[in-house]
UniProtKB/TrEMBL annotation:
Tagged with keyword Membrane: no
Top-rank taxon: Bacteria
Species this chain originates from: Microbulbifer marinus
Pfam families referenced in this protein's UniProt entry, alphabetically: PALP (PF00291)
Domain Tryptophan synthase beta chain-like PALP: 14-324
Positions annotated as active site in the UniProt record: S84 (nucleophile)
Entry similarity comment: Belongs to the ACC deaminase/D-cysteine desulfhydrase family.
The protein's name in its UniProt record: D-cysteine desulfhydrase
GO molecular function, one term: D-cysteine desulfhydrase activity
Keywords: Pyridoxal phosphate
Amino acid sequence: MTTEMPLSFPRRVDLAHLPTPLQPLDRITEKFSTPHGGPRIWVKRDDLTETAMSGNKLRKLEFVAGEAMAQGCDTLITCGGVQSNHCRTTALVGARLGMRVQLILRGELDGLPDGNLLVDQLAGASTAFYPPREYFEDLTNLFTHWQAFYAERGHKAFCIPTGASDGLGIWGYIAGSEELLADCRDAGFIPEHIVCATGSGGTQAGLTLGCHLLGSEARVTGYAVCDNAAYFQRKVREDIRHWCRLSGNTVDESGLNIQVNADYIGPGYAVADEPVYRAIAEVASLEGLLLDPVYTGKAFYGLLQELHKGNYRDCKNLVFVHTGGQFGLFPHRENFPFLL
Ligand SMILES: *Cc1c(COP(=O)(O)O)cnc(C)c1O
């Protein structure tokens, strides 16, 4: 089955507690299997990569921080929404490594800081807020501005793109694929499907490329939480090409199976309909597993719908990668009126 090629990983800073657990969700599996059967559902607990630094971004930032340090940088600059998990993780990683962190945030501070933003501030990151329009139109200039700002003060800043999704960050999920496939082997199965939420595409790119390089037949599907399927097709390819340029590897792109399900985005990024909130409550009460409304809850809700339609009925084992995001749950507290 495998044509395992030895990968030579670049410099990496150990930050995550690895391997994360792989657990079966048997009550969910039982509840959502159709008369035609369906897969056993497993969850790869990447929400447990750390406590405060938890989630998928930490795997990517291990490689990003390694490169920033190799380049002699003392400052990290990155960007995201006000409730960005990636920004929160970067803020803590910077503090952990003794680096300054500048966050370019989309949106405004209304009221007291909550969720991820509260953690950003606790971690001592500097935050600059921009209205969405300015943010999207000027993001490149904003990075240039802040890099120059730190340079004028004698600091060397390393710029990290949205979600640390680029040819460097995706190493995190190439390594993550290796770990996940080994977990499955240890648990006695070969996964046919791997599912994750996809937002900036890097997790999906890393898993897709990792499985490809490792000769796994597992089909990786990203459940989109924003944009559309064409966007992720393009973005995943772009990250993989960038990885090839940086690492000097070549990949036969025709052999890449990039699967996107964009049917469950709902009203938009970070906005969800009631069924998503109900799915979050159901998974928490049935399995003791906490999902978030922006990424994992939306993706898992989509997965449950697809299972219900019988779309995975020929599959025996499916792994959902829990990418974290729990801090983002609390700012959505008003969306759970049905619990009262
Ligand atoms: C960022 C994020 C994702 C999406 O990962 P990408 O690599 O950006 O596509 C999924 N889940 C959570 C909790 C995230 O914070």
